[in-house]
Each structure stands twice: as structure tokens, then as C-alpha cells.
Amino acid sequence: MKKIIAVDGPAGAGKSTVSKICAARLGYTYIDTGAMYRAVALKVLQSGKNLDENLLKDIEIRLDAFGKVFLDGRDVTKEIRTPEVSRGASDVAKFGFVRKKLTELQRDMAKSGKVIMDGRDIGTQVLPNADLKIFLTASVDERARRRFEELKSKNFAADLEQIKKEITLRDKQDSEREIAPLAQAPDAILIDSTNMTIEEVVLEILRLAK
């Protein structure tokens, strides 16, 4: 059984959903690194200050076994899922000192093994020695549709064409950023979920993990 599993891929590919299910079935700890960047973005937005190293000096981000996210001791699980915070997460990820700080936290979380960690640079930067690396993707149209349905289910205003533009822009930003760009690790296994159900993706990852 693979003890450390890294799942990378672009926004809206389903990384968090399938990783969370796989972790539950394997009895592993799920680490949502995207939520950590969202938490940093939320802290910046709420502080009303410019992002710098001092703002992150004493930041505390904790993920519990039930998928809740805590920022400086406060449950921000719902707050970090707004469209505004989503856009901010991509912006804060461009800063080297932010990635350094969160990478340290993420590596520490994975030390005990039996973890599934998802993000943009897990297999290439955070956990390059992971036992199993997955690169999960899907077409832009499909990822936009999923995001549209998610926002509607949470009663957020949503425009499909605007979401598609935002996803395309984020793909460009993530893949072209200077520090830790989104890329498929050479030894990662590609899974295109465009025409797959969540269960089909989960079963494929579990098969590879075993």
C-alpha cells in the first residue's frame, strides 16, 4: 500500500473531492493544501493590509480530520470557499515566502505517512518522494461546469462563461508562475476525469494505491 499519495492538477479537476473520499476509504489523513492558500488569502482580505512576511509570521492554519479549516483558531471552512477568496488564493500563491511557509507546514503534516495531499505542486515540490503521484485533470468546459454547479448549490451568483474565463486565466497563472508552477511530475500518472464519474476516479486511485 502506498503510504504517501500526491494528487496535483488544475482548478476544478476534482482533486479535493476524490482525495477526501480516497482518504476516508483508506483510513488516511486528507490534507487540502488549496484550503491553506485560501486561508492565507482570507487573512489578507480581512486584515486590509498588503501581504508581507510580517502578516504570516504568527499565522496558524489547522485542518482537522473532518475537513474543517481553522485560521488562527477560528473555523473558516465556509468563508474560504467564496469566489473572492478563490481568486485571492491564486494571487498569494505567487509569493515565494508564502509557498515556503506553507510547504514547511505541509511537509510536517505528511511526516507520519498514510496521507493524501492535493494541490498544484505536491508531486513536484512539496512531496517529490511521494509513493504515488497522480495528475488529475479535465477539460476547461467540464471544470467550469462543475464550478458553476457548485456555486449554484451554495446560492452564490454564477455565470458559466465568466467562470470559464477565470479558470482559463488561473490555469495560465498557475502554469506560468515563476515559483513552483503547476506541472505534471515526470513519474505522475495522468487521469483525465472529463468523462469519468467521481466514483470511477476514486476507484482508479484506490487501485493504484494498492
What do you see in this structure?
The protein has helices at residues 15-26, 33-47, 53-56, 83-92, 96-110, 122-126, 140-153, 160-176, 198-209; strands at residues 4-8, 29-32, 61-63, 69-71, 74-75, 115-119, 132-137, 189-192. The strands form two sheets. The protein has a five-stranded parallel sheet with strand order 2-6-1-7-8, with helices on both faces. Strands 3-4-5 form a three-stranded antiparallel sheet, with helices on one face. The protein is α/β, with parallel strands linked by helices. Helix 1 (15-26) packs across helix 9 (198-209), helix 2 (33-47) crosses helix 4 and helix 7 (140-153) packs across helix 8.
**Helix content estimate:** 40-55%
* Biggest sheet, spatial arrangement of strands: 2-6-1-7-8
> Helix tally?
9
Average pLDDT reading: 93
Main pleated sheet: 5 strands, parallel
Structural class: alpha/beta
The low-confidence parts are none
- Please write the string of helix (H) and strand (E) elements: EHEHHEEEHHEHEHHEH
Radius of gyration based on Cα positions: 16 Å
The N- to C-terminal Cα distance equals 5 Å
* Large-scale geometry: globular
Strand-residue proportion: 15-25%
**In total, how many beta strands?**
8
What would the keywords be for this entry?
single chain; alpha/beta; five-stranded parallel beta sheet; 9 helices
Element layout with pairings:
Blueprint: E1 4-8, H1 15-26, E2 29-32, H2 33-47, H3 53-56, E3 61-63, E4 69-71, E5 74-75, H4 83-92, H5 96-110, E6 115-119, H6 122-126, E7 132-137, H7 140-153, H8 160-176, E8 189-192, H9 198-209
Parallel strand pairs: 1-6, 1-7, 2-6, 7-8
Antiparallel strand pairs: 3-4, 4-5
